[in-house]
Amino acid sequence: MASSTATKPVLVVTGTSGAGKGTLVQELLRRVPEVALAVSATTRERRPGEEDGVHYWFLSQEEFDRRFAANEFLEHIAFPWGQRSGTLWSELDRIRGEGRVPLLELEPNGALTVQRHVPGAVTIFVTAPSLEELERRLRERATESAGEIEERLQLAREQLEQSRECTYVIVNDDIGRAAKELVSIVRRELQESTATMRA
Q1: Which of 59, 118, 130, 135 is the most exposed place for a label (fewest CB within 10 A)?
Q2: Contacting residues for 130 by C-beta, under 8 A, at least 6 apart
Q3: pTM score
Q4: Measuring CA to CA, how many Å separate 166 from each of 11, 104, 148, 173?
Q5: SS3 state of residue 107
């Protein structure tokens, strides 16, 4: 996988559920056009309106097994209900082939896996200002039951420990300010990698 160790960084945005990382990723893509979001592979059923290769790469369990056995995944996760998802190395190659920089939006475990396997990977952890604020956001979102919210909060406490291993931590206390900080970090990292390539 020679191209996966190219000088241009792999950017990974991660964080706790409810911290707002998805919103920040969309702002980053809008403001920094040289960055492109990697399309995840998944074994879940395609929903109406979803396109293969756009929203996800939709794989059967057998195809996922085959690709996993062939070491085609940079990182992957298996969910308790049987669904699996992951990032294919070929996505990094595709994005770099377009002359752009790969961006991954992952759970903390996946982000740290990328950090271990991709030299120069930049991991950016997004968190809410406090667990109380995180709980308020999760309850306001109202997409989970009370029990699920408690599970997510417990997971968030564990994930906050993982933030120490990331390259950067952004506290999303204000979406405009946090987006500006994320864009600033990414532009600085891209400038540094370009300078390294020229040296």
Answers
A1: 130
A2: none
A3: 0.86
A4: 11, 14, 26, 19
A5: coil
Distance (Å, whole) CA 39 – CA 91: 7
* pLDDT of the residue at 104: 98
> First CA to last CA across the chain, in angstroms?
24
Q: Give the separation between CA 128 and CA 142, rounded to whole angstroms.
A: 17
pLDDT for position 30: 98
Extract the runs of DSSP E, i.e. beta strands, from the chain.
Answer: 11-15, 35-37, 41-42, 57-58, 73-78, 84-88, 101-105, 122-127, 168-171
Among the listed residues 192, 28, 180, 172, the one whose alpha carbon sits nearest the alpha carbon of residue 104 = 28
Q: What is the pLDDT of residue 198?
A: 67
**Sequence-distant (≥ 6) Cβ neighbours of residue 7 within 8 angstroms:** 120, 193, 196, 197
- At residue 56, the 3 state secondary structure works out as strand
141 has pLDDT over 80: no
Higher pLDDT, 19 or 139: 19
Does residue 168 contact residue 185 with C-beta atoms inside 8 Å? yes
Give the span between the Cα atoms of 59 and 57, in whole angstroms. Answer: 6
